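Sequence in, structure out. Go.
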Amino acid sequence: MAGTGRKRKRAASRRNRQSENDDPPGEGGADEAAIFIAETVSELAELARRHELHLLNHLLAMAQLEAEDHLRRRRKLS
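Output:
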């Protein structure tokens, strides 16, 4: 019986991977989310910098770089 449970899990995980790539209606997609995150995190990083929250500023700047890197990689694929 344990074997059939594993098969179901694998099938479910395949479905989950597919649904991650398919954008739900009205969501805007991963690229739009990355643009929004990059812009928003940039403002938050600036706020943290002004208040000398060094670690928080660094983490937010890293999140901004990650979002921008996602967009650069997507553009290269297009």
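Check: The helical segments are 2-21, 29-50, 54-77. The two ends are 45 Å apart (CA to CA).
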